[in-house]
Amino acid sequence: MDLLILVFTIVLVLSSALMVMLVLLHKGRGGGLSDMFGGGVSSSLGGSSVAEKNLDRITIATGVLWFATVIALGMLYAY
Q1: 35 located within any domain
Q2: pTM of the model
Q3: Which end of the chain is more exposed for a tag (fewer CB within 10 A), N or C?
Q4: What is the distance between the alpha carbons of residues 66 and 35, in angstroms, rounded to a whole number?
Q5: Which domain holds residue 77?
Q6: CA 56 – CA 63 distance, rounded (Å)
């Protein structure tokens, strides 16, 4: 049981750090850190690029993983 809690805790820490990085890479109203990596150049086409869509998908998947890990840790600590 302790090994399982340790594994979920490590997954939680890694997914939390990844989530912070992914959210900061998103293009926001003010730009943010995405400007530093070339995200500040706006396209006149008005649509989302493939890279932005993939970044959205990866961010959502990381959020789901983070949420599932929090729920699993909560259930493990309850018993």
Answers
A1: no
A2: 0.74
A3: C
A4: 26
A5: 1-28+51-79
A6: 11
Computed from CA positions of residues 25, 31, 33, 38, in that sequence, does the dihedral angle turn out positive or negative? positive
Average pLDDT, the chain: 85
Q: What's the full length of the chain, in residues?
A: 79
Number of domains in the chain: 1
6 has a pLDDT exceeding 90: yes
Segment 57-77, tens digit of pLDDT = 999 999 999 999 999 999 999
H/E run at residue 33: none
34 burial via Cβ count (<10 Å: 0-12, 13-18, 19+): middle
Q: Could you tell me if residue 41 is inside a domain?
A: no
- What the block records as the tokens of 9 is 């805790």
In a domain, 36, yes or no: no
Question: Is-contact 5 76, C-beta < 8 A?
Answer: yes
DSSP type of residue 27: -
